[in-house]
Amino acid sequence: MMRIALGVEYDGSGFRGWQLQGKGVRTVQGCLEQALSRVAGESVATVCAGRTDAGVHAAAQVVHFDTAAERSPRSWILGSNSNLPADIGVLWACPAAPTFHARFAALARRYRYLILNRPYRSALRHRRVAWYRPPLEVERMAAAAMCLLGEHDFTSFRAQGCQAKSPVRTLYTLTVQRRQDLILIDVEANAFLHHMVRNIVGVLLAVGAGERPVNWVQEVLAARNRALGGVTAPAAGLYLVAVRYPEEFGLPAAPALSLPLTGDEREAG
Question: How far is CA 180 from CA 108, 121, 166, 184, in A?
Answer without folding.
Answer: 29, 15, 38, 10
